[in-house]
From TrEMBL:
<keyword id="KW-0472">Membrane</keyword>
<keyword id="KW-0812">Transmembrane</keyword>
<protein>
    <submittedName>
        <fullName>Uncharacterized protein</fullName>
    </submittedName>
</protein>
<feature type="transmembrane region" description="Helical">
    <location>
        <begin position="65"/>
        <end position="85"/>
    </location>
</feature>
<feature type="transmembrane region" description="Helical">
    <location>
        <begin position="36"/>
        <end position="59"/>
    </location>
</feature>
<keyword id="KW-1133">Transmembrane helix</keyword>
């Protein structure tokens, strides 16, 4: 048993090494004779066996009609080989960035397909994941989302994309294994934890209740905005109205308090749990439009808001590796 597993491992390594040399990773790939492989399907093998039996039968009984039938079936098989190759040759595949997901969810990798001539019934899949079928590929690029189940956070590479076709009669299987170089960051699975939502003052020594979001008030002038029917007349900018600038309303806000800081604890007993809690905290604060900063090993993100800050924080959390934190976790 162990010997077979070792043999399989050696074979798989050799196969991957050979593919890497023959089909190096590229974000955009056009299939050609060097990247297309063809073998008979199970139905095709039965077809060839039938051809051999008919030929032997016709030869043994000197029946020219049976011999002619066997040759006709063989020529049809050869024709299928040519059409199977043509159904993939010249097809261009291009990878794009997919939507962000969390560990345990399915990543949908966008792949665009186009071809100079119409190609039919092309299937795409990553390993043992669900297969996607494209009925027709034309010169106009068509997008398909190829699923890949992600179980871990961090950089996730789906591996080689299997592009396959059994057109036209299912006698031959033409396929290619291309690496579209489309690794993507998968965020840590969010786990709710209020204890992560703590805040330090600017000196970093005193904890305060959760704050950091601007609220409407009358303490500090923020600016002018178009008047909305129903707003208090006391807020109207009469001076600007007299200048002919239209109905404007004065907008005020309370000064921003100290922002929230999310801090990586190098003494936490469970690294993955802590990263999941940090992920949840980032999502919660972003949803509340509350400014927050993030302190991680070897990098710090200053307090900010917005989608860009959220994605940068989640990516940083997801890509913390075990090696860089192992020494700190002691």
């Amino acid at each position: 048993m162990d010997l077979n597993q070792t043999t399989d491992t050696v074979y798989q390594r050799w196969w991957k090494s050979w593919l890497s040399r023959r089909l190096p990773p590229q974000n955009r790939v056009t299939l050609a004779h060097k990247s297309i492989f063809i073998l008979p399907t199970g139905f095709g093998l039965i077809w060839l066996l039938l051809v051999v039996l008919l030929f032997l039968f016709g030869t043994n009984y000197q029946n020219n009609l049976v011999i002619a039938l066997s040759l006709l079936l063989l020529s049809l098989f050869n024709t299928c080989i040519i059409y199977s190759y043509r159904n993939l040759a010249g097809m261009t595949l291009e990878a794009k960035t997919g939507p962000h997901v969390y560990a345990g969810q399915t990543v949908l990798y966008p792949v665009y397909l186009s071809a100079n001539q119409v190609q039919h019934q092309v299937t795409l899949s990553y390993g043992d994941n669900e297969t996607q079928t494209v009925a027709n590929v034309t010169d106009k690029a068509v997008q398909t989302l190829v699923p890949f189940a992600s179980q871990r956070r961090g950089w996730t590479h789906p591996g080689r994309l299997k592009v396959e076709s059994r057109y036209p009669l299912g006698l031959c299987r033409a396929w290619s294994n291309v690496d579209l170089d489309n690794a993507q960051i998968v965020f840590a699975t969010p786990i709710a934890s209020v204890t992560q939502l703590h805040q330090h003052l600017q000196d970093g020594t005193t904890e305060q209740p959760l704050r950091g979001r601007s609220t409407q008030g009358v303490e500090e002038f923020k600016g002018l905005k178009p008047y909305v029917f129903g707003e208090s007349l006391h807020q109207i900018a009469w001076k600007q109205l007299a200048q002919g600038r239209g109905m404007l309303t004065k907008e005020f806000e309370q000064p921003l308090s100290a922002p929230t800081w999310l801090t990586f604890n190098d003494k936490h007993p469970d690294l993955e749990l802590q990263l999941s809690e940090l992920t949840w905290s980032v999502d919660q604060l972003s949803e509340q439009e509350q400014a927050f900063g993030l302190v991680l090993p070897n990098q710090t993100y200053m307090p900010a808001t917005g989608q860009h800050h959220r994605l940068a924080s989640l990516k940083a959390i997801a890509t913390i590796d075990h090696i860089s934190t192992k020494g700190n976790l002691g």
